[in-house]
Write a structure and sequence with these properties.
heterodimer, A: 2 domains, B: two-stranded antiparallel ribbon, 13 helices, Spermidine/putrescine transport system permease protein/putrescine transport system permease protein (chain B), cell membrane (chain B), MetI-like_sf (chain B)
Chain lengths: 287, 302
């Protein structure tokens, strides 16, 4: 089984084979990217589709801009957007507060059993399908006779958003130098002060980025929201999803494209915030 | 090592023997208690309700709590049983397909360096973080009669005439792979990235061909990533609600829809709960299987 000496020719063959493999992998990656982006681009293009007699069609029939103003003047669509904006704001706010605490405690809580318990809950949260969370929340409110409102909707969306925030913050805490916190404690800082003045500034980029992520996540949430919305309380994805069942209305695509661009812009903001603010602490650390 | 200066609050194994300062306790208890309580009330408690209800008796328009396995019997037999099995089959195969598509792409990304790697990853992540509903909506448009896919396939001569792809199980399959492909790629890249280059080079220096190196060095070391990717894709597939409805039409009902219709239409909460618990059991089995697969791997710091 000892490897035979590699003759020059086979080495060449290996090299060629290697290059072929690299090319094949690059091609495969390119195909995956095309596969992932094609439908999105398609949705953007179809927002401008003329359609036939005011109906969206899968055949492209011509360009028009009429669906954007039509979507803008659709009052129920507007109401859904309004609800979505408000609900995601509260959901993001709560998720950032709770999720940041969770992300930090997962790594730095002094008691190992507490850390284990918290990570057990977090992992459990990640492996429960959203539809199960949705029906369970619905059941919970039905049994406790709490009427569905935007508050219950926010509460229903937060657990998954909290997990998203916690994971981002946790990743950041892992890179923090524990000794800085210890030094602060040795110099007489209380724990609360250390958290406020040492830990929080260092976590800020992660917190800001996760806030935007939590917002887009909540804004986009469909599965849990499907169960917790009522005919009078609709979020945008639920409204769009519902209207799809009666055949695709052209305004849906127009609204969806705007949402898509909004989401993309938000993610860009998250990325920039992360980049900008994660540089500053490094600079100030030198002081 | 810092033990010497005798701060009890950070002695190696925590607070039981060493009494932390009072302020330590308050702040730390707070950051643990707030998330724990919030998640207990809005996540664990509802799940507990589902669990309890799954053993209850369903009456007309109401529920009587008790202990019966009737709901499970019903959920596992006949139409619902078939739905459950179909969901399992769907999740396992679609997840495997996802991984098969993801692996070469992840391999490509992992071999890039620096900025190019980040850009390559970003291109995968952008679709994932853009609106889920819009992506699936767009797929329906593409696959519909007279849509782009039909036009393309006719164009290259792979298919003639109208294409009946929408409202089939194939469409659901494509949709699942499409929706979850990015989260299959990410964990694979992370793991491939951590394999020391020296290890691969050593194998090559010792005369192993590229394929042999891949087969016997790279692939076994990727196991944790494969397990994570399988978990992240299969779990949402088990509860998938939107994709089957939009792409599968009436055909190929899956568990997610079945559960939701028990809640929203039939108002049979105990049956719906039993079905939800079955999905969780399936998730549990999956987690256990994947944990076995990664046995022997400890989280190694880079």
């Amino acid at each position: 089984m000892s490897p035979p000496p590699v003759p020059e020719s086979s080495r060449l063959a290996n090299l060629l084979q290697g290059r072929a493999t690299d090319r094949a992998l690059a091609l495969w990656y390119a195909l995956v990217v095309v596969f992932l982006f094609a439908p999105i681009l398609c949705a953007l293009v179809y927002a401008f589709n003329l359609g036939i007699v005011g109906k969206q069609t899968s055949t492209f029939t011509g360009w028009t801009l009429q669906w954007f103003p039509a979507a803008w003047h659709d009052t129920s669509l507007r109401r859904a957007v309004g609800t979505s904006l408000v609900v995601s704001f509260w959901s993001a706010l709560i998720s950032v507060l709770v999720g940041t605490a969770l992300g930090y405690a997962l790594i730095r809580h002094p008691s190992p059993p507490v850390r284990r318990l918290l990570s057990a809950i977090t992992y459990f949260l990640l492996i429960v399908p959203e539809s199960v969370i949705g029906v369970s929340s619905l059941l919970f409110y039905a049994v406790t006779a709490i009427r569905l409102s935007s508050a219950t909707l926010v509460a229903g969306i937060t657990p998954v958003a909290i997990a998203v925030v916690a994971l981002i913050v946790r990743a950041r805490v892992l890179t923090l130098d524990r000794r800085v916190e210890e030094a602060a404690a040795d110099l007489g800082s209380t724990r609360a002060k250390t958290l406020r003045f040492i830990v929080l500034p260092q976590m800020l980029p992660a917190i800001l980025a996760s806030a935007v992520m939590a917002y887009t996540f909540s804004f986009d949430n469909l599965v849990i929201s499907t169960f917790l919305t009522t005919p009078r309380l609709n979020t945008l994805p639920v409204y769009l999803y519902g209207s799809l069942q009666y055949g695709p209305a052209p305004t849906v695509y127009a609204a969806a494209s705007v949402v898509f661009l909004f989401t993309l812009a938000m993610l860009g903001v998250a990325f920039l915030l992360f980049r900008l603010t994660s540089r500053r602490p490094r600079g100030s650390a030198a002081l | 090592m810092a033990q010497a200066n005798g701060n009890p609050a950070r002695s190696a194994d925590g607070g039981r023997t060493a009494r932390p300062r009072r302020s330590v306790a308050v702040a730390d208890h707070l950051i643990a208690a707030v998330p724990a309580l919030w998640l207990a009330v809005f996540f664990l408690l509802p799940l507990a309700f589902t669990f309890v209800f799954s053993f209850g008796h369903s009456l007309f328009g109401g529920v009587e709590l008790g202990f019966t396995l009737d709901n499970y019997r019903l959920a596992l037999s006949g139409f619902y049983g078939a739905t459950f099995l179909r969901t399992l089959r769907f999740a396992v195969t679609a997840s495997a397909l996802c991984l098969a598509v993801a692996f070469p792409a992840a391999l490509f990304i992992a071999r890039l360096s620096g900025r190019r790697k980040n850009v390559a990853l970003l291109l995968i992540l952008i679709p994932y973080f853009s609106s889920f509903l819009i992506r699936i909506m767009a797929l329906t448009m593409l696959m519909a009669r007279g849509g782009v896919v039909e036009w393309l396939l006719n164009g290259v001569g792979l298919h003639a005439g109208p294409l009946d792809l929408l409202d089939t199980q194939t469409a659901v399959f494509i949709g699942m792979v499409y929706a979850y492909l990015p989260i299959a790629i990410i964990p694979l890249v992370v793991v491939l990235d951590r394999i020391p280059r020296a290890l691969v080079e050593a194998s090559r220096d010792l005369g192993a061909s590229r394929w042999r190196t891949f087969r016997h060095v790279t692939l076994p070391l990727t196991r944790p990533g494969i397990a994570t990717a399988a978990l992240l894709t299969a779990v949402p597939m088990l509860g998938e609600l939107v994709i089957p409805r939009l792409l599968g039409g009436g055909r190929g009902l899956l568990m997610g829809q079945a559960i939701s219709s028990q809640y929203l239409q039939s108002q049979n909460y105990p049956l719906g709960s039993a079905m939800a618990v079955l999905v969780l059991v399936a998730v549990g089995v999956l987690v256990a299987a994947l944990a076995r697969m990664t046995k022997g791997f400890v989280e190694v710091p880079r």
